[in-house]
Amino acid sequence: MERNNESSGNFILLGFSDQPKLGMVLFFTNMVFYFLAITGNSSIIFLSLVDPRLHTPMYFFLCNLSLLDLCYTSSSIPQMLVNLWGPQKTITYIGCVIQLFAFLSVGGIECILLSVMAYDRFVAVCKPLHYMTIMHPQLCLRLAACAWLTGIANSILMSPLTMSLEQCGHHHINHFVCEMPAIICISCVDTRHVEGLAFFLAIPIVLVPLTIILVSYGYIVATVLRIQSAAGKRKAFNTCSSHMIVVSLFYSTIIYMYMQPGNVASQDQGKFLTLFYCLVTPTLNPFIYTLRNKDVKGAMWKVLGKDHSLSDARGH
User: Fold this and answer.
1) Which residues pair with 90 in a beta bridge?
2) Cα separations (Å) of 193 from 11, 71, 128, 171, 198?
3) pLDDT tens digits, one per residue of 257-266
4) Which of 133, 142, 182, 235 is deepest in the core (most CB within 10 A)?
């Protein structure tokens, strides 16, 4: 069976096949998380479109983040569930190309989008009186378009280069997804030019956005410390806390994973970390943004026909 798969140009995703007892546990756990990720992120997008109270820059960018999370999970998890359920662990060449393109695109877009969201929070906290003037709809559209186009351009450049590396008959990918490091590992030629270019592109796509995030929150912290009232500090913290948690989850996972050495133990860790940022993080993001957010809760109750803002007004 494996020979037929290799001769037809398919790849074999080894995934977690070396831990067969884990297969069914992962299948049902991932299926639940996938359902929650799809439901949560779709709900954020739907509520942001239908409720006028959410027609603000912050929710516009949050809507983009939810769309990215949907792309992340849908490009990898369905294939993983199929491979976990049945004896076949294969993915077609075209399917592998699509996964690689999606991962490279979405990863780059999310890095830049998170920095744009940090700038939005900086303006909201540090320049509140000029917020709507600075963050006007045209600027928001340009910033979002810049994030999407940069991520897609990076993927258009890196995907063909990665897939053009000769594998010399090696079709066993030690991962559950066609991710760039996993494909580079099965190559039998010198890959330094591809890895060097990826490192160079990581400067504008990963390092520059991370710097913008850190600088933005440096200014935010300095502004919050100058606020005299406890209520003002609490409001400023609530404005930024959700984004800080999402940024911490995303960057800590990425940095930890790519700083690991290439041994077997770290490869197994890499699989779980990839699973974390392509399934667990997209599942948590909607809950992180809604648990402490009165606007999203209000929009949800309104859609369900239970507008709590009206009942609170009547109570007063």
Assistant:
1) 12
2) 23, 29, 46, 22, 9
3) 665 544 444 5
4) 182
